[in-house]
């Protein structure tokens, strides 16, 4: 059968052309499949080489070499004008958060900005949406912040609407909420009202957001509310913060330290 088919093809030009076309088509399909497979593996190797090259190039970019931020932002505090119309300024120092605890009773945050970049103990720390804590320790390039989510943290606060003052602290439970104490029941406070820093805190300018009222608490025998406040800062996701430098607070503290003591 094979010999007959060969003879037929060899002596019949029509069959020879047809068979050649079939063979070429078959060979072409096999070749195409082989080329596709070869191209896949070549492409994979090419992509791996490009990825390695990109990694090397990215490592040479300036953004790969990180240093503490030395920039400054100035904010005018229009609530503290004196009789001459002069205004008090605060200096804001951007800093990257490199460590953030939220699961302990006393939580701390580490910022990548230290004494060499202007960080000082007692500076307030804010985030994009509200306060974060206060600086308690400083090294050359880092500082340690007592988070608002720390049982020892106390912040002077006030209601934005009627300026009733009180202290804000954390009960060590839900990281989303803090408590404002000693708000008189005569205050017209409602759920959703804003709680801000007061003018009694040297660490922060007045008017920085702390959070919004989530619930009013207090027993009937007390003349004061305890406000459950949902924090403006999302401590689960915060990445950057600002150190707040009250540039004339040292003068205020020095003067207050000279005040005669009652005997």
Key descriptive features of the protein:
6-stranded antiparallel beta barrel; single chain; Thrombin, subunit H; 2 domains; 13 strands; alpha+beta; 3 helices; 263 residues; 6-stranded antiparallel barrel
Order of helices and strands: HHEEEEEEEEEEEEEH
Average pLDDT, rounded to a whole number, is 79
Task: Give the radius of gyration.
Answer: 35 Å
CATH superfamily of the largest domain: Rod shape-determining protein MreC, domain 1
Uncertain spans, ≥5 residues at pLDDT below 50?
A: 5-11, 51-56
How many helices? 3
**CATH topology (level 3) name of the largest domain:** Thrombin, subunit H
The beta-strand count equals 13
**CATH architectural category of the largest domain:** Beta Barrel
Strand content: 25-35%
* Count of discrete structural domains: 2
Helix content: 25-40%
Structure class = alpha+beta
Task: Let me know the largest β-sheet.
Answer: 6 strands, antiparallel, barrel
What's the N-to-C terminus distance? 129 Å
């Amino acid at each position: 059968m094979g010999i007959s088919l060969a003879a037929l093809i060899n002596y019949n030009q029509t069959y020879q052309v047809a068979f050649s076309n079939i063979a070429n088509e078959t060979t072409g399909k096999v070749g195409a499949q082989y080329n596709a497979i070869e191209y896949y593996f070549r492409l994979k190797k090419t992509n791996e080489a490009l990825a390695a090259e990109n990694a090397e190039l990215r490592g040479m970019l300036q953004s790969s070499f990180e240093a503490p931020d030395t920039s400054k932002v100035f904010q005018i505090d229009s609530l503290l004008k004196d009789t001459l119309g002069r205004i008090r300024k605060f200096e804001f120092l951007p800093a990257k958060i490199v460590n953030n605890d939220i699961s302990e009773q006393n939580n701390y945050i580490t910022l990548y900005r230290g004494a060499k970049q202007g960080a000082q103990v007692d500076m307030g720390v804010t985030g994009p949406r509200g306060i974060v804590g206060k600086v308690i320790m400083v090294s050359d390039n880092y500082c340690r912040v007592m988070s608002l989510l720390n049982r020892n943290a106390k912040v002077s606060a006030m209601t934005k609407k009627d300026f009733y003052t009180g202290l804000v602290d954390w009960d060590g439970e839900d990281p989303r909420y803090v408590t404002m104490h000693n708000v008189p029941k005569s205050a017209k406070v409602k759920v959703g009202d804003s709680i801000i820093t007061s003018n009694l805190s040297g660490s922060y300018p007045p008017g920085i957001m702390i959070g919004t009222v989530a619930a009013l608490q207090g027993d009937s025998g007390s003349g004061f509310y305890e406000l459950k406040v949902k924090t403006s800062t999302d401590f689960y996701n915060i990445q950057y913060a600002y150190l707040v430098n009250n540039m004339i607070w040292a003068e205020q503290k020095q003067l207050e330290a000279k005040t005669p003591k009652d005997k």
